[in-house]
Amino acid sequence: MRTSKNSKMANVMKPSFFVGTDIVDVHRVARLIRNKKFVQRIFNPAEIRYCQNKKNSAQHFAARFAAKEAVWKALGHILNGKGISHSEIAVINNASGKPMVRFSKRLKPYENKISLSLSHTETAAIAVALYHSQ
Ligand SMILES: CC(C)(COP(=O)(O)OP(=O)(O)OC[C@H]1O[C@@H](n2cnc3c(N)ncnc32)[C@H](O)[C@@H]1OP(=O)(O)O)[C@@H](O)C(=O)NCCC(=O)NCCS
Questions:
Q1: How many angstroms separate the CA atoms of 71 and 52, rounded?
Q2: How close is the Cα of 58 to the center of ligand 1, in Å?
Q3: For residues 69 and 42, is the Cβ–Cβ distance under 8 A?
Q4: What pTM did the predictor assign?
C-alpha cells in the first residue's frame, strides 16, 4: 500500500514541462559566420537559406544558435548529459513565421514536444524552448 501511494506521489510530482533558454551575442555570431565551414557545421541548408535571405542575417543566425542551445537544455533530462551536435537540431519557420524544431532521426520522437520562441535585436538574440511530455 505504502509503495503504491509513493509511486502515485512520484507520478504526481514528475514534471511534465522542461524549459531551456540561451542568449547569444549577435556581433560574435556576425564574426563567426564569415567562416563558411562554421556555418555548414552548425546550420542546415534550409536554415542557411532562411538567414541569408534576411537583411540582418547575423541576427537570424544568432537566434538559431541560441535555439539549438535552448533545446539542448530543455531536453537535458532525456539526454542525461549526453551531447548532441548542432546539426541534429534545425529551426524552420511555418507560413506565419512561427519557429519550429526539426530533429535528426534519433531525436525525432521528441520533435512535436518542443515549443520554441525567438527574439533578436542588433546586439542580442534569445531563444526559449519548452519541452512538454504530453
Ligand atoms: C512577428 C513579430 C512577433 C516579430 O516581432 P519583432 O519584435 O519584429 O521581432 P523579434 O526579434 O521579437 O522576433 C522575431 C522572431 O519572431 C518569430 N516569429 C515570427 N512570426 C511569428 C509568429 N507568427 N508566431 C510566433 N513567433 C513568430 C520568428 O522566430 C522571428 O525570428 P526569425 O525570423 O529569426 O525566425 C511581429 O512582427 C508581430 O507580428 N507583432 C505583432 C504582435 C502582436 O499582435 N502583438 C500584440 C500584443 S498583445
A1: 23
A2: 17
A3: no
A4: 0.87
